[in-house]
């Protein structure tokens, strides 16, 4: 990965779960994606055991190995990670305090729409699926006859269906000698 730009560096060092700088790095052996230790452990407990980024199956928590080299790299780039996280938190709080009003407007317009449509909503009756009823149990004689019929169908030679072999006539088997001669001339021709 090219770390030429600050944005590319930030992307490579950000945990995709908490969207903060990775702390106590854990790398998934199967796909080599990196996350914060706490984030990946919580994700694996709450969700299926898979990588949150690429959905590769993670066999166990032991597959998430500690990556001290990446932690050392982060410390050499950013310095103290606790101070960095505190600065990120402060920046986030400032953004929220500045933009809180825009979210209030969204909530107010939703409430206005809800009030305007109150009483006009059509109720659609729920459709229930009809359950198929189980057939009545067979008598021992009928059960025996049904088993015999199934066995006969399995053992019976299959007839070629029109359209499967390209036409209505069955395909010729190269090992099949063909029809047997029934006349005296035909029988003699095959023997001599």
UniProtKB/TrEMBL annotation:
A Pfam family per the record: zf-C3HC4_2
Top-rank taxon, per record: Eukaryota
Annotated PROSITE patterns: ZF_RING_1, ZF_RING_2
Keyword Zinc tagged: yes
Domain RING-type, first and last residues per copy: 15-55
InterPro entries listed in its UniProt record: RING1A/B, Znf_RING, Znf_RING/FYVE/PHD, Znf_RING_CS
Region (Disordered): 107-192
Record bears the keyword Zinc: yes
Molecular function terms, GO-annotated: zinc ion binding
Biased composition (Basic residues): 119-132
Protein name listed in UniProt: RING-type domain-containing protein
Organismal lineage: Eukaryota, Viridiplantae, Chlorophyta, Chloropicophyceae, Chloropicales
Biased composition (Basic and acidic residues): 107-118
């Amino acid at each position: 990965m090219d770390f030429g730009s600050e944005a590319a560096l930030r992307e490579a060092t950000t945990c995709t779960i908490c969207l903060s700088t990775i702390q106590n790095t854990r790398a998934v052996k199967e796909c080599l994606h990196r996350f914060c230790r706490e984030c990946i452990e919580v994700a694996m407990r709450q969700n299926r055991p898979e990588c949150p980024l690429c959905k590769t199956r993670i066999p166990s928590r032991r597959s998430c190995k500690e990556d001290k080299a990446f932690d050392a790299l982060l410390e050499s780039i950013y310095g103290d990670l606790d101070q960095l996280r505190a600065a990120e938190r402060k920046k986030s709080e400032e953004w929220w305090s500045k933009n809180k009003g825009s979210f209030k407007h969204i909530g107010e317009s939703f409430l206005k729409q809800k009030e305007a449509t109150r009483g006009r909503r059509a109720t659609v009756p729920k459709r229930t699926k009809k359950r198929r009823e189980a057939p009545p149990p067979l008598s021992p004689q009928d059960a025996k006859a049904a088993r015999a019929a199934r066995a006969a169908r399995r053992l019976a030679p299959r007839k070629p269906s029109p359209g499967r072999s390209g036409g209505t006539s069955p395909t010729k088997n190269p090992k099949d000698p063909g029809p047997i001669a029934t006349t005296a001339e035909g029988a003699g021709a095959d023997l001599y």
